[in-house]
Design a protein that fits this description.
Number of strands: 10
Structural class: alpha+beta
Radius of gyration: 17 Å
Order of helices and strands: EEEEHHEEHHEEHEEHH
Helix content: 25-40%
Strand order of the largest sheet: 3-9-10-6-5-7
Strand content: 25-35%
Length: 168
């Protein structure tokens, strides 16, 4: 078991995917390289997950890393059109335009795109968080500072999500 607890598990509710859990404290080096923790690399199966990670910066200061297959599955959901409405077209251009494939080097590291690091403000000490179908790279100091608040707000967060599901 690595830093932060639980191992990664394969979960199979229909399609087999990797279920990312736990977290690990790491460092993004001066060249922008991040070592993918062994607990996540060891759960990786190229046939199931693809050969690369897809990196997407997010405005809340995180970088989301999806396996190639998970990203493809999520990207193929929903209606596709040659004439999407303007908001959908803008979302697709922004989201897919920022998405970058990353390959592991021989040391198990990925080179995070400089644009992603700049847009999110991520550098130096980070935490890699298992978030179900993805990994999230976050600034370690912010993650640690908010740990107690996040934990205490968990019941309210679940209640909000459940209420939203009931309305749908």
């Amino acid at each position: 078991m690595g830093a932060g607890g639980a191992e990664s598990h394969t979960w199979s509710p229909g399609n087999s995917i990797v279920l990312f859990t736990g977290h690990a404290e790491l460092t993004v080096d001066a060249k922008g390289r991040l070592a993918i923790p062994a607990k996540y690399r060891n759960a990786w199966e190229a046939e199931r997950d693809g050969s690369s990670w897809i990196s997407i910066p997010w405005p809340t200061g995180i970088i989301r890393l999806y396996t190639e297959r998970a990203f493809e599955a999520l990207a193929s959901q929903g209606e596709q059109s040659l004439t999407p409405d303007p908001d959908e077209a803008e979302l697709e251009a922004q989201l897919f335009g920022l998405a970058e494939p990353l390959n592991l080097d021989s040391a198990g590291r990925v080179l995070l795109p400089k644009t992603h690091l700049r847009l999110t403000g991520i550098s130096g000490e980070v935490v890699v968080v298992g978030a179900r179908n993805r990994l999230e790279v976050r600034e370690r100091a912010a993650w640690m500072q908010e740990e107690e608040r996040r934990f205490q707000s968990l019941p309210a967060l679940v209640a909000r999500i459940e209420a939203r599901k009931r309305r749908e």
